[in-house]
Amino acid sequence: MTVTIDGKAVAQRVRAQVAAEVAALDPKPGLATVLVGDDPASAVYVASKRRAVREAGMSDHHRSLPATATQAEVAAVLEELAADPAVHGILLQLPLPAHLDPDALIDRIPAAKDVDGLTTRSAGLLARGEPGLRPCTPSGVIELLESQGVKTRGSRAVVVGRSALVGHPMAELLLQHDATVTVAHKHTADLAAVTREADILVVAAGVHGLIGAEHVKPGATVIDVGIHRTADGLQGDVRRAELDGVAARVTPVPGGVGPMTIAMLMVNTLRAATMDGP
Ligand SMILES: Nc1nc2c(c(=O)[nH]1)N[C@@H](CN(C=O)c1ccc(C(=O)N[C@@H](CCC(=O)O)C(=O)O)cc1)CN2
């Protein structure tokens, strides 16, 4: 039997724990979300993050800029938030309009407030295994694996995708959890031969329906990070129905990794407010 991992339930538990810790704090942790432009999906994600902030009892600081905002205008907002003592975490929602340079803007966020774990400094701390804030989706995947009792130590993990947001930090985190990790990407020859080695298969390729039964080792745990709006609703990178009776566990889309991204953002904001910064 293939278990569908309930990411919503795990995320709710994580968020309830954060809210309980926040209740004992004064002043409250503050998160600033920065949204540039009018991408509809980004607007939905930012609204969900702000709702989660309020439900956790944290303070919500939000800035919206038009799609025409310049690099200097976005940088000025980030610098103002960086200097605000009521703001413990800053998040620049991605993707940005094409004329902006996301890496240069992200690096305006001080590592101590980098609740997305995406600055050059945070990435360096992760690569060196030093304390710091970790990207939300990969740390949510680790939390999901732990919640299901999936052993990482000594297991073979394959990550499909090498983005700075998910694939790269995911591979680092799995390595730090003692898995033997392979990163596959669009130039990988015979992808199925590589992914069939995996006890833990994390798919973050951004390609709708890329992974099917032929890619999965019997008994594997499959984590689907893909999210695609199709005529049949939200779907992932994994052809979920094909994995019944093949995989031991699979995350659904929706209701798998997505809710964990927001839950781990709450965890990171609490950490940014309570720990000595990196
Ligand atoms: N600055 C960032 N930008 C982006 C990130 C990120 O971690 N930091 N990740 C993605 C989008 N994202 C968060 O921003 C995100 C994606 C999906 C979900 C989620 O809960 N999805 C639900 C479905 C919701 C829906 O679309 O209807 C689910 O999977 O069940 C939360 C956050 C890119 N940008």
From TrEMBL:
Domain of life where this protein originates: Bacteria
All copies of domain Tetrahydrofolate dehydrogenase/cyclohydrolase catalytic, residue ranges: 5-116
UniProt keywords, alphabetically: Amino-acid biosynthesis, Histidine biosynthesis, Hydrolase, Methionine biosynthesis, Multifunctional enzyme, NADP, One-carbon metabolism, Oxidoreductase, Purine biosynthesis
Enzyme Commission numbers on file: 1.5.1.5, 3.5.4.9
Record keyword Oxidoreductase present: yes
Reaction(s) catalysed (UniProt annotation): (6R)-5,10-methenyltetrahydrofolate + H2O = (6R)-10-formyltetrahydrofolate + H(+); (6R)-5,10-methylene-5,6,7,8-tetrahydrofolate + NADP(+) = (6R)-5,10-methenyltetrahydrofolate + NADPH
Any Pfam family matching the protein: THF_DHG_CYH
InterPro entries: Aminoacid_DH-like_N_sf, NAD(P)-bd_dom_sf, THF_DH/CycHdrlase, THF_DH/CycHdrlase_cat_dom, THF_DH/CycHdrlase_CS, THF_DH/CycHdrlase_NAD-bd_dom
Binding of NADP(+), residues: G161, R162, S163, I227
This protein's pathway: One-carbon metabolism; tetrahydrofolate interconversion
Assigned protein family: Belongs to the tetrahydrofolate dehydrogenase/cyclohydrolase family.
Described function: Catalyzes the oxidation of 5,10-methylenetetrahydrofolate to 5,10-methenyltetrahydrofolate and then the hydrolysis of 5,10-methenyltetrahydrofolate to 10-formyltetrahydrofolate.
HAMAP family with a match to the protein in the record: THF_DHG_CYH (MF_01576)
Complex formation: Homodimer.
Identification of the protein by name: Bifunctional protein FolD
UniProt organism field: Paractinoplanes globisporus
